[in-house]
Amino acid sequence: MRIDPSLSPTPESWLAANAPDAPVFFFHPERLAEVAREFRAGFPGLVTYAVKANPAPEMIRALHGAGITAFDVASPAEMALVRAHAPGAALHYHNPVRSAAEITVGVEAGCVSWSVDRASELEKLRSLPAGTEIAVRLKLPVAGAAYDFGAKFGATPDQAAALLRRVAELGFTPSLTFHPGTQCASPEPWARYIAEAAAVARSANVVLHRLNVGGGFPAHRDTDRPDLQAIFDTIREVTEGAFDTAPQLVCEPGRALAAEALTLALRVKGVDEEAVFLNDGVYGGLAEWRDIAPMSRVRPVAAAGGALCGALRRRIVFGPTCDSIDRLPELLPLPGDLAEGDYLLFEGMGAYSRALVTGFNGYGVRRVVEIEKQS
Ligand SMILES: *Cc1c(COP(=O)(O)O)cnc(C)c1O
What we know:
Layout: E1 2-6, H1 11-18, E2 24-27, H2 29-42, E3 46-50, H3 57-65, E4 70-73, H4 76-85, E5 90-93, H5 100-108, E6 113-116, H6 119-123, E7 133-137, H7 157-169, E8 173-177, H8 188-204, E9 210-212, H9 228-242, E10 248-251, H10 255-258, E11 262-271, E12 275-278, E13 298-301, E14 312-318, E15 332-335, E16 343-346, E17 367-371
Parallel strand pairs: 1-17, 2-17, 3-4, 3-10, 4-5, 5-6, 6-7, 7-8, 8-9, 9-10, 12-14
Antiparallel strand pairs: 2-11, 11-12, 11-16, 13-16, 14-15
Bound molecules: pyridoxal-5'-phosphate (PLP).
C-alpha cells in the first residue's frame, strides 16, 4: 500500500479536495504517539506491541520512535518486518505452536522470549540457548472479552504448573503469560488471571522472572473512551498483593495501541430507503464487524465536505462485492439525506482492519493518506 502525504488538515478537507472514489485510510502518527505515551506512562512495566493488529511499516516505525522497544511477533514475516523498521528492538515470539523451520528462524532473528502451552512444543525448544526466557501460556474460563482467546491456546492451571517446573528444569528462564481476550471492557479478567498466575507459580515452586499480562486492552469503540488507567492500576495492585516476589510486568497490546492511528473513509455508491451500498465492507477494512460488537464512531460527511443533518434512519449497510454476506450484521442509523457520493468516516479503525483487507471481487482499501498535525 502506498502512503501519500497530505497537505490537508483533516480527512474531511482532503476528501472534499480529492473526491476519491476508492476507500482511503487516513494515518494519524501523532495520535499513535499519544497512545504509546499513555501506555508507557501508565502501565507498570514493559510495553510491547502485538504486530498482528496492524503490521504496516509506518506503524512499526512510529511506535519505535515513540519509545516502544519490544514487539510481540507470531511469524518469521513479522520478525523480518520488525528487524527492518525497528532495528535493535527486542522480539517476543509468542505464538505457542511453531514448525521446526520457524524455530530456526526465531533463533536466527534473536527472539528473546518464547511462549509455550503444551509439553510437546516445549520439547521442540530444547536446543534454544540456556537461560532463554520461556513463558508458559495460561488459560482460564473468564468472561468479559469481545471474544475468547482461551479457545485455541493456553494451558490449564495444573498443566501450566507442570510446564513451568519443566521450563526451570531445562535451564530456561521461567515466566508466565496469558491473553484475557480482545477488547476487555473491565479490569476484572486481569485481576483473576494475575491471582491465578501467582497460584500456579507457587504450586510449581518457581519464582517467575516476568508476568506478561497480554493484550486485550479496550479501544475507543463507543461513546465513552475506555479507562485504561483503571486497568493499569488494577494490574499493579493485584500483582503487588498476589506475589511474594513480584515478577516484572510486560503487556502486549495490539488493538488499544493501534486503533486511533487510522480513520477509514468509505464512499456511498448507491442508496435507497432501506439500504446503503459502500465501496468497502467485511472483505476489506470492516472485516472485524462480523466477529465483534460494532463501533458507533461513524461520521457521515457530504461529498462537498459539510455535515449532513437529515433525521437518522436505520439502514442495511452492504459492501461492494457480489456476495450476500458482504453486509454489516446490524442496521446503521444514518442521516436521511445521505446521497450517492457522500462519505462515511469510521474513527478508531487502526486495528484488525488494514491487516485483514482482501482483494475479493477486485475491491479492498489500497490507499493510505498521512494527516500531519497542523501547528
Ligand atoms: C492478538 C494478540 C495480542 C494482541 O491482542 P489485542 O486484543 O489486539 O490487544 C497480544 N498477545 C497475543 C499472544 C496475541 O495473540
